[in-house]
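Check these lines:
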Amino acid sequence: MGGKRKSQLKTTSRAASSSKKPKARVPDLICPCCGESRAVSEKVAPLRIELLMRAHVPVWSNLELGWSVTAARNKWLSWACDACFKAGWALEAKPWLQSYGYNSVQFAYLDETKTCSDCGNEFVFAATEQAFWYETLGFLIYSKPKHCVQCRHERRAVKQANLEISEVLGSFEGSIPELLQLADLYEKMGNLPKALEFVRRAKNKSRDEIEKQVLLERIALFELDFISSKP
């Protein structure tokens, strides 16, 4: 009788174990950087970075674990696989340092090609520059540069020149040094007509023949530049 019960228990146990469904395997992700299929694991991106983020910003623990995988699968998240990070094709982000506003965080930075709205030339918004913008300077994650590096430098130079012009005009007495300083600042801004105007005023005010001759030569150069700059 006892042997019969044991046999029945073994049969029941086998039936119960065979009725259990195997745990569904999470489908692989396709890395947007290299295009390769990558297994989903807590040891690799994007889930690995999600866990780091939860550790740095506890409020992110309120979200269901694995949200980054869903976001990556639906192309809502900028990410790359660990192999791309290692190869230098992408730069791993620290999303807990980002200011993301209403946008999603970024788990990776990849070089982006942009078109300058000033000169029309293409330029690269490098991954390293993105990290500096979003993690050090605190720019919102959806902020993007509209101008190339050279045009940005020129715009800053114009802004600085405007500030200096305001300072000179604030205590302006009409002296030759002041007139020439204003001419230099307007030339720096690329405003040749204004620069020419102040050099002429300095020449008319000068009583020194040698100085006048120097200024006349400068006027001639300005006029030449001004004419050649016209379309």
Q: What stands out?
A: The chain has two domains: 29-147, 151-224. The domain at 151-224 is CATH 1.25.40 (Serine Threonine Protein Phosphatase 5, Tetratricopeptide repeat). The radius of gyration is 33 Å. Residues 102 and 142 are 9 Å apart (CA to CA).
